[in-house]
Amino acid sequence: MTQEFHLGRTLKNIASMRGTNIHEIEISINSYKYWVTDLYLSGISNKFRNQIIIGGLNQKYEFNCIIKDGNTYKYLDGFFKGEYNQNLLTDSVITDLCEVGTALECDDLIEWFCEKFEIENYKIENFEKIIIYSNIKGINNKLYDFICQNLKEIGIKKVVDACIKIGYDFAEQLIMSCQKNNIDISELFTSLIETNSSFLGIILNVDINKVDFSTKNRYKSIIFFIIIMGSC
Q1: Together in a domain, 89 and 129
Q2: CATH number, domain at 98?
Q3: What is the average pLDDT score of the chain?
């Protein structure tokens, strides 16, 4: 059974904005248009609540969100009217709603995603969900240990995708953590730089004595190239 969406923060915010004059605001998400009252927006979104407090809202807002399930737009049609259609709530819709929650700064949607997929309890089958949440809320240091301990089970491709999604600093720290735990990073790092060359600079912090012979020679060539390019 799908876990129901609850409105703890939303209702609290609406209650605090009782004196607000009610106006309709146009919200566009990936060109899908919704009309929402400013009172309701102040409840679901910290972003809009703060704007009302400091001086009011514009008549129209546009957001680009990563939405993969078309039913998400149908759900949002009800959501912005205060209606919550449980029949539309698949895992993919809940994941999309987390992306919308991030754009709108809607804590209820983000926390709902966290509770639904039990993000606090790291599991290999939830790895991609953990990465989505970590990219929004920040990296918990235990994520590095979790990946190091389960690198083969998670799979190199998923870890590389996570590095690209979260960014350079995360990838660098993960590589360093792997080496600290004596985990061979040859395949991981090679796949990473082949997928996205912007991660090449991480190699300057890699202990090449901890990789296999063929990889070591390749890394030496890359380091030499970086040094030469840097001196130009």
Answers
A1: no
A2: 3.30.710.10
A3: 83
- d(CA 65, CA 231) in angstroms, rounded, equals 41
Contact indicator for 42, 13 with CB cutoff of 8 Å: yes
Q: Which two tokens stand for residue 56?
A: 């009011």
Q: Which of 86, 118, 150 is the last residue of a domain?
A: 118
pTM score over 0.85: no
Contact 106, 92 (CB under 8 A): no
What are the Cα distances from residue 12, in Å, to 112, 134, 162? 16, 26, 35
Tokens of residue 148, six digits: 């190091």
Distance in angstroms (rounded) separating the CA atoms of residues 17 and 15: 6
Q: Which domain holds residue 176?
A: 120-231
pLDDT digits (tens, 9 = 90+) for 70-127: 999 999 998 888 888 888 889 999 999 999 999 999 988 898 899 899 998 899 999 9
Whole-number Å distance between alpha carbons of 95 and 75: 12
Domain count, the chain: 2
Judge if 4 and 114 occupy the same domain.
yes
Residue 179 contacts residue 148 (beta carbons within 8 Å): no
Q: Which amino acid is at 221?
A: S
- Rounded to the nearest 5°, which phi and psi values hold at 33? -105, 140
Q: Closest Cα partner for 168 from 205, 126, 210, 218?
A: 205
